[in-house]
């Protein structure tokens, strides 16, 4: 029982006391009403019988006139009290509640707001009672009450509750009372709409999902089955599995963990997954395992069904790491196990599955715990079955722990095989387990038992793998007992004889083991028993080793094929220690000894010690000079830990490396080197060697702080690269030195960064693959590539930078993650930021620079406009004081301090940004003044100057946004102009963003012409960035950053009545990725025409080559220094400010667009944007049409939402989606198409090409409709021929392509997973293209592949694809699905030989749909157009296979019979679908025609999805 809150008890007492006093009627009424409500609240909390509430409400009711409206509330309270008392008095109380409600209704006056609320509560209570009683009449009355109250309710919370209650009642009435389909539709629509609301409570979301689950199951049942509840467990499983699994899983998977943990609900999902067992995935197994845990927890621990569920749950667990072939078998068995669903067959499958799991555990060393769990549950389920106990023993043995091995042995001891044939095999397995136990325990008794069992097994085992395995296990036991437990000479003899006999077997692995074992037995033949223990005294052991057997030992060791084994290394080590001077090459033998020592030591040696061994073993072999060897060993000893055993192995003569020389000694060596060079002839090998040594000494001196020495080293290195370009090591080292010592960070020119990377490239070409200098370059290559990315904007450099930095300490992405954390967590405290930066970047960053970085990043975050950092907390007073103190401290630094400028820059930026963010304009202006001062100081480092100018510009802009004034605006403009002029941001994206801001400032100042020019330049800059990218994915990421900016620029042009510039703006912001793909195909010709044949050849050879960083793979070798190509960068430089660049960047002019329109007999091309239309006519005229209704985006957004939801959950939202589509078609007419067609006028249907912007791309404008005669709608396609274009540029390019005869070389493709395509493409092929190529023809064994489609593109004149398609969140990943393989957009764009003017028909779902980045209009349809097609038919949403088949037959019928233009043929097919008196297309297969007759072809979802792009 819930404890009553103190406040509630006190309130009840207070109302009782009030009623005991003398009150007037109104006061008494109010007190009684309040007391009843409090008592009912208490009853709900405690579950008590509401007797007192009934009494008080009854007394109040009696005190009132029978027809008094004031009785309404007491009667409602009486009804609620009876309802609450039903838990104590049953149905009698519910009937009493209904009686009170019947008495209440005549008293209600809907003119009174309180009575409206009472009517709503009356309906809600009546609904609940109707569900409890299963009373249809009561349900009807409840719905009537709720429907009457709902329109009048003003209380949103009550409206929401009434709506939910009505939906629940409709759901229950449909499911349990045989209610009509309207109940189903209302409940589904309501619960779906509630789920679409933002921020609904988790418990309400769970309730809605569960209701929808129940409705989905009920919807697919006949009425008698729905109303026969309660169902048996078997019926529940049957009915659940008959419902659509995907829809059920979508709702069940969306439930909160608390709700899905309810056994009944978990059971539903179990049934769904079991029903789809053949398609179950690893993720499904994990989900099923969790649900089984819930069911297991609800069962009695002795319930046999519980044991089976425990076993199944364990058998479904995850299996890392992968074991490919075994995992495939496991996956099939798991699916069979799920499908068995607890049947008798399931036990057998479980046994097979667990046997494989045990095998897997032994292979991988993981997962044996759940094998034990499965086996234990199997034993509990069928304790009499020996096979289950054997599996339990094997599962324990697979865990290798001593207690598990003993448990396994105990289990098997109690089992007795039925016959002799099974007995020998059984004893062998017992012996194997006892062998593992003996090796683990080192207990002689366990060894003896293992030998006994293995001996007994060998007596009855026939020759074969099991006998040989048993033989080897027994031999190993004799060996172990002799070598580790002081065994007898008989053990030595029996082990030696067994291994010698096994040498004759034709098994290399067994032979290796035998040779190694015999070598060890020979060495230990004369070792006393007391020394044959796990850790003997080494000196005593060496004294007793049998040296006479060493030649035979060495022969055995030499015969081993696999020399990498650690135990073998230990044997070799022991043999070498017995006679270290036996080899003719003592130094080479010592090197082998060191390698074996390292292998045998395992993890006992530190990385430093292992490095020392590697360096010595690499240098020792072949050296005969003992003094040289001593020096080598002494050098290797330096830096070893004091307690390292290597000190005892290495010699320690006193010698220094160059790095350890004193400064004077080093200076003498440098001087001598310079003098020697003067005496050597330039160009001689000796001169080159001298330069190598001198550079090494100068670098050591330079690293000690002697900048002159470092500059001299660089001077020599530069000379070497020019004088000795092909002297590999010397020139390679010189290029590496120049790369490592270069300055290439932010603010440096792209040329400086490129020069540095050129040095890296040459070093890579010249240095040997194992040269140590490569290791020096590795950590900085990533930084260099990141610098080039920041200077150029080529995102491939950023990807390659991450590829090269992945394995370096503190890679750049960790610092970027730190910066993201500063932004996301809104850090304003510099000390906290510093500590986090140290964790990300290490201690290599000096303190003053680290402070500067932290202050700069915090400042940039604070300077973001407030509307983009909602919820951000401004700096505190403490933060402001700290910023002011930092600025004061920086000003106090002496002018001679080399760090003064960087300290002042960071502190000033922090002051300016903090002041702006916190409205402390005095502090902001103080910081701005200091930043301006620093930016004008001479001698600043490039990076400090760059960032200071940037921060100054952004701070001035922030000051202007914060407190608008003409002075602040002018200052912001000056700052941005200076930044762009002197230190332009490196990437095109950043420059475009700054130009966009500057354009807005110009407009605000009133300089509209300059604003337009600057806005267009921002878009051109962004376009250059798109063209620079080496893949569609990277191009898309650059293009997406400009989302919406082109529309903003266009609207600015329209305000100035500059329609030509508006068209330019709209074109520069649309379809740039498609344009980049089209340009790539024509680039070689453009380069040759521009006088760059070398670049043309490079383009043909290099473009679209896949690099390791493109696939996300890791580096195959640390020595690898492959760099991204600079081809596109070189092309941009070569074409800069040329007519060729103008051709690439400039959109088509209005005259070019009008010419293309005339060529295609089109009246106009129309851009649709928010509130506006820009029209270009076939006569070259430009018009601006205001369309204010286009600003209303709710219908588009609602359709977009349901479109996504439909793709996610399928048919469950079909009806809401259809309603949204119909609303969208109505809106499209009034918002745009109606006014446009009125504007065009004329008698004949005009042909129009639409270029919608943003989400307006989602609208099927050709299906815009208005009410027509006879109650039928009239659609836009009935009054116009409407085509689409991603951009005017793509339309013009397509219009210029020569149109082939479509029927010349047609290719038709179908996949067999779409049933109706056999009729669709079969008819089209037979009726129109019988001579064409038909891929996927019924009866053919293979499914057409992506390569088949790409191969068909160059020669085809018409390509028709009947297959699936999947739109992706990232448009370049959208793909056609051909069987189990996909053809993504990116591959179509990359394909070098396109369809050359052909017609491409994509009879596939959503082939002209993009889920985001709508202005790029990057779909499968537009991708084929970019690849060279002349026209493409695509679809905007998921389409029905049956209806699509008939639509495509009609389309090709019209295309080949009077409408040769695809746009006209598509319209004709759509009109045919709309015609209620349509004539059948001749020759349509009977089955298709019969099923098509049962559909409604005229509804927009069946025909409006189809669109046309092209000429």
- For the record, the CATH architecture of the domain at 1298-1510 stands as 3-Layer(aba) Sandwich
CATH structural fold name of the domain at 1298-1510: Rossmann fold
What is the gyration radius calculated from CA atoms? 42 Å
Query: What percent strand?
Result: under 5%
Topology overview:
Layout: H1 6-20, H2 25-46, H3 51-62, H4 72-84, H5 86-89, H6 91-104, H7 113-133, H8 136-149, H9 156-176, H10 181-196, H11 202-219, H12 223-226, H13 233-242, H14 245-253, H15 257-260, H16 263-275, H17 282-297, H18 304-315, H19 324-340, H20 344-364, H21 368-381, H22 386-398, H23 402-413, H24 420-441, H25 444-460, H26 465-484, H27 489-502, H28 508-523, H29 538-544, H30 550-559, H31 566-578, H32 586-601, H33 607-619, H34 626-637, H35 663-679, H36 685-703, H37 707-723, H38 728-740, H39 750-766, H40 772-792, H41 795-805, H42 812-824, H43 830-841, H44 847-862, H45 877-892, H46 900-917, H47 921-935, H48 942-962, H49 966-982, H50 988-1005, H51 1008-1028, H52 1032-1040, H53 1045-1055, H54 1059-1068, H55 1072-1089, H56 1093-1102, H57 1127-1135, H58 1139-1145, H59 1150-1159, E1 1164-1169, E2 1172-1177, E3 1182-1186, H60 1194-1209, H61 1214-1240, E4 1247-1252, E5 1265-1267, E6 1273-1275, E7 1281-1284, H62 1288-1296, E8 1306-1310, H63 1317-1328, E9 1333-1335, H64 1346-1352, E10 1358-1362, E11 1364-1366, E12 1375-1378, E13 1381-1384, H65 1385-1390, E14 1399-1403, H66 1420-1426, ...
Parallel strand pairs: 1-4, 4-7, 8-9, 8-10, 10-14, 14-15
Antiparallel strand pairs: 1-2, 2-3, 5-6, 11-12, 12-13, 15-16
Helix pairs in contact: 1-2, 2-3, 2-4, 3-4, 4-6, 4-7, 6-7, 7-8, 7-9, 8-9, 9-10, 9-11, 10-11, 11-14, 13-16, 14-16, 16-17, 17-18, 18-20, 18-21, 19-20, 20-21, 20-22, 21-22, 22-23, 23-24, 24-25, 24-26, 25-26, 26-27, 27-28, 28-30, 28-31, 30-31, 31-32, 32-33, 33-34, 35-36, 36-37, 37-38, ...
């Amino acid at each position: 029982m819930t404890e009553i809150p103190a406040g509630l008890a006190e309130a009840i007492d207070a109302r009782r006391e009030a009623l005991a006093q003398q009150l007037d009627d109104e006061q008494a009424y109010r007190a009684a009403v309040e007391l009843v409500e409090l008592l009912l609240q208490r009853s709900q909390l405690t579950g008590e019988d509401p007797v007192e509430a009934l009494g008080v409400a009854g007394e109040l009711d009696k005190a009132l006139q029978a027809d008094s409206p004031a009785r309404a509330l007491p009667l409602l309270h009486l009804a609620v009290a009876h309802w609450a008392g039903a838990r104590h008095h049953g149905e009698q109380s519910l009937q009493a509640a209904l009686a009170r409600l019947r008495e209440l209704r005549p008293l209600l006056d809907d003119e009174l707001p309180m009575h409206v609320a009472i009517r709503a509560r009356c309906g809600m209570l009546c609904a609940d009672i109707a569900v409890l009683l299963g009373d249809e009449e009561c349900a009807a009355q409840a719905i009537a009450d709720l429907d009457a109250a709902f329109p009048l309710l003003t209380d949103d919370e009550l409206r929401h509750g009434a709506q939910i209650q009505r939906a629940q009642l409709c759901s229950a009435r449909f499911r349990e009372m045989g209610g009509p389909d309207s109940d189903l539709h209302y409940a589904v629509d309501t619960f779906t709409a509630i789920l679409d609301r933002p921020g609904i409570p988790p418990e309400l979301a769970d309730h809605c999902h569960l209701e929808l689950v129940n409705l989905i199951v009920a919807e697919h049942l006949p009425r008698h089955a729905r109303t026969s509840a309660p169902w048996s467990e078997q019926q529940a499983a049957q009915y659940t599995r008959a419902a659509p699994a995907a829809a059920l899983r979508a709702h069940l998977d969306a439930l909160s963990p608390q709700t899905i943990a309810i056994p009944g609900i978990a059971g539903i999902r179990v049934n769904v997954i079991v029903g789809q067992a053949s398609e179950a995935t690893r993720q499904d197994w994990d989900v099923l395992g969790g649900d089984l845990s819930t069911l297991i927890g609800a069962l009695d621990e002795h319930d046999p069904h519980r044991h089976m569920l425990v076993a199944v749950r364990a058998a479904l667990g995850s299996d890392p790491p992968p074991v490919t072939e075994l995992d495939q078998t496991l996956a099939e068995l798991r699916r069979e196990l799920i499908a068995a669903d607890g049947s008798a067959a399931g036990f057998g499958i479980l046994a097979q599955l667990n046997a494989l799991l045990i095998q897997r555990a032994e292979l991988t060393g993981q997962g044996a715990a759940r094998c034990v769990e499965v086996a234990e549950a199997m034993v509990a389920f069928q304790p009499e079955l020996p096979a289950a106990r054997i599996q339990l023993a094997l599962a324990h043995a697979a865990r290798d722990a001593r207690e598990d091995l003993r448990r396994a042995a105990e289990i098997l001891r109690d089992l007795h095989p039925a016959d002799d044939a099974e007995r020998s095999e059984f004893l062998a397995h017992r012996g194997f387990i006892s062998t593992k136990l003996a090796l683990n325990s080192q207990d002689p008794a366990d060894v003896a038992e293992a030998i006994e069992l293995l001996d007994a097994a060998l007596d009855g085992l026939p020759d074969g793998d099991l006998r040989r395995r048993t033989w080897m296990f027994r031999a190993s036991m004799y060996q172990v007992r002799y070598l580790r437990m002081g065994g007898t000479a008989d053990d030595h003899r029996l082990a030696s004889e067994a291994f010698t006999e096994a040498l004759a077997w034709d098994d290399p692995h067994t032979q290796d083991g035998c040779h190694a074992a015999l070598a060890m037995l020979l060495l230990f033949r004369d070792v006393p028993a007391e020394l044959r223990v796990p850790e003997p005294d080494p000196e005593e052991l060496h004294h007793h080793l049998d040296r006479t057997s060493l030649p035979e030992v060495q022969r055995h060791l030499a015969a081993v094929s696999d020399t990498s084994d650690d135990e073998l290394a230990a044997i070799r080590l022991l043999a070498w220690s017995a006679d270290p001077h036996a080899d003719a090459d003592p130094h080479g033998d010592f090197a082998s000894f060191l390698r074996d020592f390292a292998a045998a030591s395992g993890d006992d040696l530190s990385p430093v010690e292992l490095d020392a061994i590697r360096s010595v073993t690499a240098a020792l072999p072949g050296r005969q000079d003992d003094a040289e060897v001593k020096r080598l060993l002494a050098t290797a000893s330096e830096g070893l830990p004091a307690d390292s055993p290597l000190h005892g192995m290495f010699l320690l003569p006193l010698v220094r490396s160059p790095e350890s020389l004193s400064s004077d000694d080093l200076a003498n060596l440098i001087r001598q080197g310079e003098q020697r060079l003067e005496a050597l002839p330039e160009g001689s090998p000796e001169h080159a060697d001298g330069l190598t040594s001198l550079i090494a000494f100068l670098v050591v001196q330079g690293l000690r702080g002697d900048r002159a020495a470092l500059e001299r080293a660089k001077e020599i290195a530069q000379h070497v690269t020019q004088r000795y370009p092909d002297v590999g090591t010397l020139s390679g080292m010189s290029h590496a030195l120049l790369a490592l010592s270069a300055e290439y960070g932010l603010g440096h020119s792209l040329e400086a960064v490129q020069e540095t990377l050129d040095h890296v490239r040459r070093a890579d070409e010249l240095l040997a693959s194992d040269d140590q200098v490569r290791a020096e370059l590795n950590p900085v290559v990533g930084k260099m590539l990141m610098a080039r990315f920041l200077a150029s904007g080529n995102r491939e450099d950023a990807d390659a930078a991450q590829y090269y930095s992945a394995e370096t300490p503190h890679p750049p992405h960790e610092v970027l993650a730190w910066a993201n954390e500063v932004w996301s967590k809104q850090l304003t405290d510099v000390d906290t930021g510093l500590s986090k930066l140290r964790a990300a970047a290490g201690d290599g960053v000096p303190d003053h620079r680290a402070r500067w970085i932290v202050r700069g990043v915090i400042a940039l975050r604070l300077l973001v406009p407030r509307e983009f950092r909602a919820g951000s907390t401004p700096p505190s007073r403490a933060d402001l004081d700290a910023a002011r103190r930092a600025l004061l401290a920086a000003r106090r630094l002496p002018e001679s301090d080399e760090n003064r400028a960087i300290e002042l820059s960071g502190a000033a930026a922090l002051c300016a940004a903090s002041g702006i963010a916190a409205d402390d304009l005095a502090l902001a202006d103080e910081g701005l003044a200091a930043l301006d001062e620093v930016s004008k100081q001479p001698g600043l480092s490039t990076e400090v100057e760059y960032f200071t100018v940037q921060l100054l510009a952004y701070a001035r802009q922030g000051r202007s946004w914060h407190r608008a004034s003409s002075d602040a605006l002018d200052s912001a403009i000056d700052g941005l102009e200076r930044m762009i002029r002197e230190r332009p941001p490196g990437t095109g994206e950043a420059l475009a963003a700054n130009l966009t801001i500057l354009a807005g400032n110009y407009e605000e100042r009133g300089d509209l012409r300059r604003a337009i020019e600057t806005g267009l330049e921002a878009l051109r800059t962004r376009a250059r960035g798109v063209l620079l990218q080496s893949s569609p994915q990277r191009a898309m990421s650059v293009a997406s950053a400009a989302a919406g900016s082109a529309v903003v620029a266009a609207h600015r042009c329209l305000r100035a009545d500059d329609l030509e510039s508006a068209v330019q703006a709209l074109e520069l912001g649309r379809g740039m990725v498609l344009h980049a793909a089209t340009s790539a195909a024509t680039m070689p010709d453009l380069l040759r025409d521009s006088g760059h044949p070398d670049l043309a050849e490079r383009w043909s050879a290099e473009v679209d080559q896949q690099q390791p960083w493109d696939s996300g793979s890791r580096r195959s070798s640390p020595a690898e220094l492959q760099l991204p190509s600079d081809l596109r960068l070189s092309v941009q430089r070569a074409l800069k400010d040329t007519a060729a660049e103008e051709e690439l960047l400039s959109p088509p002019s209005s005259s070019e667009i009008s010419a293309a329109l005339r060529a295609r007999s089109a009246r106009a091309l129309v851009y649709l944007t928010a509130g506006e239309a820009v029209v270009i006519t076939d006569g070259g005229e430009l018009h601006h049409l205001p369309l204010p209704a286009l600003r209303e985006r709710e219908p588009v957004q609602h359709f977009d939402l349901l479109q996504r939801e439909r793709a996610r959950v399928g048919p469950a939202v079909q009806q809401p989606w259809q309603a949204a589509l119909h609303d969208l078609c109505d809106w499209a007419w009034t918002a745009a198409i109606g006014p446009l067609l009125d504007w065009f006028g004329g008698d004949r249907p005009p042909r129009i090409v639409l270029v919608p912007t943003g989400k307006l791309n989602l609208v099927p404008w050709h299906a815009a409709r208005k009410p027509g005669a006879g109650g039928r709608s009239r659609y836009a396609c009935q009054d116009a021929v409407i085509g689409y274009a991603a951009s005017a540029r793509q339309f013009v390019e397509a219009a210029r392509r020569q149109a082939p005869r479509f029927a010349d070389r047609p290719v038709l493709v179908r996949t067999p997973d779409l049933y109706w395509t056999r009729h669709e493409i079969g008819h089209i092929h037979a009726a129109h293209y019988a001579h064409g190529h038909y891929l996927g023809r019924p009866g053919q064994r293979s499914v057409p592949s992506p390569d088949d489609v790409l191969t068909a593109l160059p020669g085809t004149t018409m390509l028709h694809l009947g297959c699936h398609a999947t739109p992706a969140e990232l448009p370049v990943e959208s793909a056609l699905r051909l069987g189990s393989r996909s053809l993504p957009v990116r591959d179509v764009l990359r394909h070098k030989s396109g369809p050359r003017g052909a017609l491409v028909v994509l009879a596939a779902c959503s082939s002209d749909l993009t889920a985001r980045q709508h202005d790029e209009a990057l779909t499968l349809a537009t991708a084929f157009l970019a690849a060279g097609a002349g026209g493409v038919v695509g679809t905007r949403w998921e389409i029905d296979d049956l209806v699509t088949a008939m639509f495509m037959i009609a389309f090709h019928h019209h295309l080949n019979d009077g409408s040769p233009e695809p746009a006209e043929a598509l319209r004709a097919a759509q009109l045919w679908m709309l015609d209620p008196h349509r004539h059948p297309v001749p020759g349509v297969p009977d089955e298709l025609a019969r099923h098509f007759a049962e559909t409604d072809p005229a509804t927009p979802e069946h025909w409006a999805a189809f669109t046309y792009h092209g000429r």
